[in-house]
Each structure stands twice: as C-alpha cells, then as structure tokens.
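Regression test case RT-17, inverse folding.

Input:
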C-alpha cells in the first residue's frame, strides 16, 4: 500500500510540474509579441501629401504616413472603424524604416507594426460592436450604364483605378472591388447588391461633401457636379440605398503624440 501511495503521489507531482511548465510556456508565448529587429521612427514634416510603402523579405518601410493609416494597416481596419483618437492622428506624418531578423511575410510585418505602435506610441484600445449607417449599391430603375470588358478584349489601358477628389476612373474592375473602393471613398460600410459579375470600365464624377471624408483633400474645379447619389444614377445607372451595419469598432483609449526615442 505504501508503494502504491508513493507511486500515486509521484504521478500527481509529475502532473503538477508538467502543468506548471505548460502554463509558463503559454504565458511566455502570449507575451512574446512579434517585433522588428530594429526600427527607426521619424516625423515627416514635408508638405507633400503622398504616402508610400516598400517591403522586401527582411525590410519594411512606410513614408509620410499618418498614425491613423498605420493603425488601420496594422490591425486590418477600415477608416470608419477607428474612433476616439485625437485629430493629430491624421495630420502628423511618420517615416518608418524597419528590419526583421530574417525573411518574413507581409502579414508578419504588420503584426510587428502593431507591437511597434503599442510600444512607441503607448497605444491603448478596446473593441466594441456598434450599429452604424452605410450604403448598399444596387441597379437603378433603367439598368446599368457600364462598359463590360469581355473575355479576350484587348485594352491599351491597364487594369486599375484612379481616385481623385470627386472622381473615380476604373478599368477592368470587378464589382467585388467596388466594396473596398466605395467603403474607402465614402468612409462607411458598403455592400454590393447589383448581381453584376463581370469586369467593367467606368468613370464617375461628383461633388464631395463633408460626409465623405476620404474622397479627396482638394475641392473639385467644377462646383456644378452632382452629388454622388445623382451621379451614380445619371452616369452609371446605379444607386445607393441606406442600410444599418453592425461593425466592430476599434476605440482608442490612449495614444502618445511624441513616440519614445529610437
């Protein structure tokens, strides 16, 4: 009986040690946030508005980029999801040059960017679900006015989009890409309900208003342009319908304007 008791106690002691080791390993894994091997962070005081980024397996660079955009990229957020931050999040711009310990993926670099923002800017945040208004894109009464690019059709213009204040020009654009495009321009949730499945060429011109914070920083030359609602119907045969969306919001509780030193 004594031997059996000793064996049971030994086994239980071994289980306790194993559990403690696993817990310690889990704790270590949890706090070991991915980070850059080295990172230089500098304020960009130029008057240029263009942002840039460059990546290779062992390097990541962001140029002339507001902290708002860095947060959106790091946490995979839309502009309208970030709330509660100070105005300088959009106005102060930064250059970041970062190196990794070895080859890393695009996703891993943005995970490292999260760590950099938290550690250097003291970012604190929480998430909450909120119902906010957005738009659904649908076909207007008289049908779409889009040029569908047929399979094998040759075009001298490469696929892509050009976005300026109150102007979007698209070539060979899938309707699924309109969701990201208009969500960015209108600054709110967006959904495609047209049922169109092809690729399309289009040009849309309208007069932005204050409810469209991301449609451009300069006022269009022609103030007689229609609203985006009228422009969509007149120029493309489409329409916007209002809808409520349940969205996970990224609420900023604290952020430091002056980051810690390099």
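Golden output:
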């Amino acid at each position: 009986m004594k031997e059996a008791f000793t064996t049971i106690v030994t086994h239980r002691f071994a289980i306790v040690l194993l559990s403690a080791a696993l817990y310690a390993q889990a704790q270590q894994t949890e706090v070991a946030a991915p980070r850059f091997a080295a990172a230089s962070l500098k304020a960009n005081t130029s008057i240029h508005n263009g942002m840039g980024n460059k990546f290779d397996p062992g390097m990541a660079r962001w140029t002339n980029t507001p902290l708002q955009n860095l947060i959106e990229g790091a946490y995979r957020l839309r502009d309208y999801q970030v709330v509660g931050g100070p105005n300088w999040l959009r106005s102060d711009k930064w250059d970041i040059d970062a190196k990794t310990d070895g080859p890393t993926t695009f996703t891993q670099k943005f995970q490292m960017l999260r760590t950099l923002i938290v550690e250097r800017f003291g970012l604190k945040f929480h998430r909450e679900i909120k119902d906010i208004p957005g738009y659904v894109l649908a076909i207007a009464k008289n049908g779409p006015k889009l040029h569908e690019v047929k399979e094998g059709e040759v075009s001298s213009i490469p696929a892509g989009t050009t976005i300026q204040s109150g102007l979007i020009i698209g070539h060979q654009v899938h309707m699924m890409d309109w969701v990201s495009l208009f969500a960015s321009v209108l600054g709110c949730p967006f959904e495609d309900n047209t049922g169109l499945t092809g690729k399309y060429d289009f040009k849309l011109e309208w007069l932005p208003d204050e409810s469209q914070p991301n449609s451009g920083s300069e006022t269009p030359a022609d103030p007689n342009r229609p609203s985006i609602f009228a422009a969509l119907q007149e120029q493309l045969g489409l329409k916007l319908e209002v809808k409520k969306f349940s969205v996970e919001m990224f609420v900023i509780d604290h952020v430091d304007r002056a980051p810690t030193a390099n």
